[in-house]
Amino acid sequence: MNAATAVYSRITGTGGYLPQQCVTNAQLAQRVDTSDEWIVTRTGIRERHFAAAGELASDLALRASERALAAAGVSPAEIGLIVVATTTPDVVFPSTACILQRKLGAAGGAAYDIQAVCSGFVYALAQADLAVRAGHCRHALVVGAEVYSRVLDWNDRSTCVLFGDGAGAVVLSAADAPGVLSSHLHADGSHAGILGVPARIDQGRIEGSPFLTMDGNAVFRFAVRVLADVAHEALAANDLQPGDVDWLIPHQANIRIIEATAKKLGLPMARVVVTVDRHANTSAASIPLALDEAVRDGRIRSGQHVLLEGVGGGFTWGAVLLRWH
Ligand code: ACO
């Protein structure tokens, strides 16, 4: 089959990468006025990885992409589209996707970034699915890559303990049976004020704070509501019930948000993939990292329904429902 006859897309390979430096809550507590007990109780986070000085989103993306390409048995030259979801790009421009394309040695296809914060991977996967199904390319590389350690305010203990760095990637390929069953994307810019990095570059100066700011309680309430709503929307679109979900892979922000979402859907936690304890919140990278883990350890098996869903600054939210091949 060639791309022109593709009706569906499916994930043919996954990959993940975490930077070498792993920082436990106890180690953070030497730097910030906090404790392992406070962080674990409020968030479920026990440790996170931080990129080394000079290690950029495209570096993490490269490692994750190489693993996804190897798993798919696809060479960089066969990739017709690269979409990188990131809120912490290497530079203002060129896009991290173009930088990644150069590092992969895969020139020629399309490459661009998507900026939808923690929903970025779900947005990117939905866009790549459309491109593959429309015959624009036979193989797309979809990546979530973040270095949130660069935008954390170490004087704000209510945010700096929550995030980590990492990258996850998938190869999405043309297929004659679905893979991606449906995608559902939403945004409501009127909630922009509860989570952001408000800085902008103006005449050579940075105007506004270049650090992450958040109203944690407002984010919590918003996230639980829309994650349950969009899960129901995705299931209804496919005539499925929550009980038909074999694996829920939500954005990994906080175990309490994940547990509250699972409870609202009536899903046992045994069917939810959780990495937040070891990765913390890696924003656009969290879903592909969790997916990669559950694929590689054999939890996700052929024929199963896998529901990916994210929510993040903007506010943005969305879901992609998969039938695993
Ligand atoms: N260590 C110790 N104490 C802390 C810390 C810390 N790291 N951070 C805050 N505190 C203190 C506060 O100062 C406050 O003290 P006070 O009562 O003396 O003033 C106390 O803990 C309680 O603060 P709250 O903000 O009310 O704590 P809460 O129980 O609401 O938990 C949290 C805060 C964990 C941020 C919670 O609101 C939350 O989970 N929100 C969701 C936010 C989130 O996950 N965002 C991720 C990014 S968004 C996304 O990915 C979608």
Quick gist of this model?
32% of the residues lie in helices and 26% in strands. The protein has ten helices and 15 strands.
Task: Please describe what this structure looks like.
With 325 residues, this protein is of the alpha+beta class. The chain has two domains: 3-176, 3-Layer(aba) Sandwich (Peroxisomal Thiolase, Chain A, domain 1), CATH 3.40.47; 181-323, Peroxisomal Thiolase, Chain A, domain 1 (3-Layer(aba) Sandwich), CATH 3.40.47. The chain is 32% helix and 26% strand. The protein contains ten helices and 15 strands. The protein has a five-stranded mixed beta sheet with strand order 1-7-6-4-5, with helices on both faces. It has a four-stranded mixed beta sheet with strand order 8-15-14-13, with helices on both faces. A hairpin with a 2-residue loop joins β10 (200-202) and β11 (205-207). α3 crosses α4 (96-104). The protein is globular, with a radius of gyration of 19 Å. It starts with 7 loop residues before the first strand and ends with a strand. The mean pLDDT is 97. The structure holds acetyl coenzyme *A (ACO).
